Amino acid sequence: MRKPGIGLAIVLIVIAGLLVEHPAGRVGAQTSSPMDEVVLGGRLYDDWSEVKSVTPPPGSHPIWGRQSTNTLSGPETWRCVTCHGWDYQGKDGAWSSGANYTGFPGVYAARTLPAATLTGILTGSSDPEHDFSPYLSAAEIQALVAFIREGVVDDRDYIDLVSRKVIGGEVAHGQALYTQTCATCHGEDGRKITFRYQGMQVSLASLAVQDPWRFLHRTRFGVARAPEMPIGAALGWSAQDGRDVLAYAQTLPSGLEPQVTPPLAGPEPTPVRLPGGPAQNLITGVLTALGAMATSLGFALLLGALLVGILLVVVWMLRSRK
Description:
With 322 residues, this protein is mainly alpha-helical.
């Protein structure tokens, strides 16, 4: 017959084994969600060197020499977004012309490719000069693949390509989301924090007006340089929620509004009556008529005298010849 002490000891050993397998600090701990991977991929797409706190390789990206329209060089050419655009459309989207045009395709069309194919593109299987495996880990490559397959959206549904205005946004809903999440850091008017954009410091509203595609991407996935920023993907925002926040941001003071010249202050100027003009009464009317007649008579006498003088000269010349 087994002694009770032996059974108790066995139970204690089993419990101890479970505690070793699942220590207090790890029991119930959350693992990375698929959305975390997509968010990481979105930030790597923005600026992988900033995410990793490393310096890109010297010079321009090897593929950069295949285009001659975009004059950027150096570290900027190593960013995915520089070639493929904030709207993910590359040469077919917002950067189809202008200084940012490169002729390179976007990544939106690639979202339907198998994960293995995208991994091969990012690791140089399709093009050795497009090999990022020396700079990104296998997990980071996988995050970029997840971002392309699950994170990119068609911004043409939300932003007019010509006017850059939001299509069908709900400003009131965007204002509510902005007030709850963004206003603490950016301020009620969006001017509390400024950004470096095309060599200038601009406000949030200015960025929303000038580059709404960049605004939407960073609203969804955050900024590589500010990982602490609340982001739509973590807050459960839909693409429509981000669009509505953009619509509201475009209503904030941007400094790009048309300037209206204010009227000059002071009393209204008193009109000055100039001499001449129509007669004001009977006497001035008669005087005006007589003046006109005198002027006409004087002109007629002068003209008559001139004609008589010409006739006298002609007669004199004819007599002199005889």
